[in-house]
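Might I ask for a little of your time on a matter of protein folding? The record follows directly beneath this note:
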Amino acid sequence: MATRERQSTVTLRLRRTFEASPARVFRAWTTPEEMKQWKGPGELTTPVAEVDLRVRGKYRIHMRAPDGTLHRLVGEYRLVEPPEKLVYTWRWEDQPDFPETLVTVEFLDRGASTELVLTHEFFPTDEARQSHETGWTGALEKLARVVTQR
């Protein structure tokens, strides 16, 4: 990974409020069986979600498009503070030229709800940031349904 001085400053920041506790949203974000229900926007499905939830632990996510294309994502946890914060690297295994980026997720207690603040940084281009914004927005819509299921 390049030094901070050489990394891009192109950053995505999203905020969403969920009608669930921080512990509930954190669990959906970090539990493989629940991740399979919401990772991947739109019609993408998630056949693989593997998590070693600890600092320096690895994760792997495979998202499948309706045409069968498989998007493979891997990374490493840098900070794990349940149920308040996660920091992890993000690398597209099937796109070796795409640089590793960094995701920070904050789960802020707002009484009966959780404000989620997602910061995804070090994109190589504005176009890459926009593509990930579309993906995250769709995935967060699915996450809202998962965390409010009774």
Notes: The two ends are 42 Å apart (CA to CA). The chain is about 25% helix and 40% strand. The chain has a mean pLDDT of 94. Helices lie at 22-30, 32-38, 126-147.
